[in-house]
Amino acid sequence: MAAGGRAVQLRKTLSFVLRHQPWSIGLVLDEQGWVEIDELLAWAHASGRRITHAELLEVVASSDKQRFTVSSDGRRIRAAQGHSVPVDLALAPQVPPAVLYHGTASRLVAAIMAQGLRAQARRQVHLCTDIDTARRVGARHGLPVVLVIDAARMHAAGHVFFVADNGVWLTDRIAPGYLSRLP
């Protein structure tokens, strides 16, 4: 596969189809977000998007964020997290680290601190374990700000956390009282 542009375009196409609009190429995800790889490739081809099996596996393997998961038998694929369509990733609840982080843009901080973090168009709020990742995520949306989440206190209060296949921490909502801004 050609490096750079082609790989980025394939990753974006896969993200769009597996997270947000599978029907755009005629796909139907199962309840846990899986689709047969052969079916994905056939529908992609029929809709004018030529993707080979080798290219698909290369995009999966080379994704810095490990956005996609291939089933253990190698026959199915799904997005690891970030869905806006209803799926149940069948993730078991996990005990989070004491602190988690969320990157956002500075223009959104006042509203977040007043209202908390909500999933918005996605199914859950995405969190990470390190400041650098949070800062990179925030930078995608403007001047980055890193928010600190008191995950230990949330968990003790009964909030449920999950870890996606790619290591992203997920929860449904974070109330303002569990948030602070990294200085």
Automatic annotation (TrEMBL):
EC number(s) on file? 2.7.1.-
Give the keywords, sorted: NAD, Transferase
Q: Which Pfam families match?
A: PTS_2-RNA
Query: Which GO molecular function annotations are given, in alphabetical order?
Result: NAD+ poly-ADP-ribosyltransferase activity; tRNA 2'-phosphotransferase activity
Keyword NAD included in the entry's annotation = yes
Which InterPro entries does the record cross-reference, listed alphabetically? Ptrans_KptA/Tpt1, RNA_2'-PTrans_C, RNA_2'-PTrans_KptA, RNA_2'-PTrans_N
- Per UniProt, the enzyme's principal EC class comes to transferase
Which one GO biological process term can you cite for this protein? Answer: tRNA splicing, via endonucleolytic cleavage and ligation
At the top level of its lineage, which domain of life is listed? Bacteria
- Report the family membership: Belongs to the KptA/TPT1 family.
Q: Which HAMAP family match?
A: KptA (MF_00299)
Q: Could you tell me what this protein does?
A: Removes the 2'-phosphate from RNA via an intermediate in which the phosphate is ADP-ribosylated by NAD followed by a presumed transesterification to release the RNA and generate ADP-ribose 1''-2''-cyclic phosphate (APPR>P). May function as an ADP-ribosylase.
Name of the featured protein:
Probable RNA 2'-phosphotransferase
Q: Name the gene that codes for it.
A: kptA
